[in-house]
Structures are given as C-alpha cells and as structure tokens.
Amino acid sequence: MSTAVRAKTTGAVNAREYGEFCEAYGYDVTTWEGYPILAGARELRMTTFAAQHAASNEEWIGQAQYRIDCLRGRSGPRPWPWKGIL
Does pTM surpass 0.85? Predict the structure, then answer.
C-alpha cells in the first residue's frame, strides 16, 4: 500500500518503478476495490504526520498546509508533489 500511495499520490515512485514493483510483488493493489479506502487512510496519516512535526518546526508548516489542501481538493488531481518530512 505504501509503495502504491508513493506512486499514485505523491509521485515519489514513477510509473516504470511502480510497474516493476507490481511485477515483482505479483499484484497491483490499486486494482483492488479496497484500495481507495486504505490509500485515503495512508494519505491522512502522512498529512497528520506533517502537521504534528510542523507544530515544532516552522519550516514544515507550509508542507503540512499543502497536504491538507490536497486532501480537501484545493490542489488539483494526484499526484501531488509532497516533500519529505524529516
């Protein structure tokens, strides 16, 4: 799930890399009917992680707000170029 979210949500894994991963893993979880629910939970976790760390590090406030905006539909379609926290 994490690799799929990195490919489909943040673009941190490109299409070729994700295809190779799926081939090695033997399945593309994005085709599973439960994927949107678990992907949404993972995206929320990544967003709250950023918000938690933004509370103690001002340089992450913008990234936390950006992630919130993405989840609220204010930043266009996926993939969103989220930056790493920490």
Answer: yes
Q: Residues 12-58: pLDDT tens digits?
A: 999 999 999 999 999 999 999 999 999 999 999 999 999 999 999 99
- The whole-angstrom separation of Cα 53 and Cα 76 is 24
Chain centroid to CA 81: 9
Convert 41-58 to b/e letters by CB count within 10 Å (16 or more is b).
Answer: ebbeebbeebbebbeeee
CA-CA-CA-CA torsion for 48, 51, 56, 61, nearest 10 degrees? Answer: 160
Measured CA to CA, the distance from residue 68 to residue 31 in angstroms comes to 26
Which tokens go with 33?
């009917």
